[in-house]
Write a sequence for this structure.
């Protein structure tokens, strides 16, 4: 089975990271799988140096785990990890919508509407693309709140959500339903309704957490 696509030109650390993320998201690399530096280098067609840099970066982001004298592995998450990730994410995004509303504008609302419109047009059961569009919406919220540190911490949590790819099918099946949930959040932001915006985005994330819990129990 081919996991990585051979590159036709010289590549760098970021490209290596992108390919590893894509392999995890597509389920070709799963939590617990070993990552072998030389194999990635050979598959992508360039030297081991950017591969090593990429692995170090992804380890710092906790997407990979280095076990001394054994090697590098795709990180595994347990129920406690999942709980912590989603609770922290909910709190960050609730703060983000508060900050966004403080400096709201038609341009910011339009940016969120564009993401939702594209989400509505996706195919059902295209789990990977739905996941990416969902995360794009939430990242956009964090970008528009104009707090660089908040975005930085959110991106670290979002990276670890890739490890939950095996459970996505439990809540990424209906694009229009997903778009509706995000529309509720945008309407609250548009109306400068802080309480409703905070509640809506918090409820949305906690609902996702509950579905992940069920999926992990099923496994």
């Amino acid at each position: 089975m081919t996991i990585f696509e051979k590159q036709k030109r010289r590549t760098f650390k970021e490209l290596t990271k992108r390919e590893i993320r894509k392999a995890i998201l597509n389920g070709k690399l799963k939590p617990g799988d070993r990552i072998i530096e030389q194999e990635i280098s050979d598959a992508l067609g360039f030297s081991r140096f950017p591969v090593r840099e990429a692995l170090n970066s992804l380890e710092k982001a906790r997407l990979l785990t280095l076990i001394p004298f054994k090697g590098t592995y795709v990180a595994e998450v347990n129920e406690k990890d999942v709980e912590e990730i989603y609770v922290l994410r909910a709190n960050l995004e609730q703060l983000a919508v508060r900050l966004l509303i403080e400096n709201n504008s038609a341009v910011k609302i339009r940016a969120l509407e564009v993401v939702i419109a594209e989400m509505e047009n996706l195919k059902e059961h295209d789990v990977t693309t739905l996941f990416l569009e969902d995360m794009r919406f939430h990242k956009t919220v964090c970008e528009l709140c104009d707090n660089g540190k908040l975005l930085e911490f959110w991106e670290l949590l979002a990276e670890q959500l890739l490890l939950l790819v095996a459970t996505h099918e439990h809540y990424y099946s209906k694009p229009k339903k997903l778009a509706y949930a995000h529309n509720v959040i945008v309407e609250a932001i548009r109306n400068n309704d802080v309480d409703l915006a905070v509640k809506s985005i918090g409820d949305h994330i906690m609902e996702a957490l509950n579905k992940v819990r069920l999926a992990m129990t099923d496994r």
Remarks:
- The chain is about 65% helix and 5% strand.
- The longest helix spans residues 194-218.
- The CA atoms of residues 117 and 179 lie 8 Å apart.
- The chain has a mean pLDDT of 87.
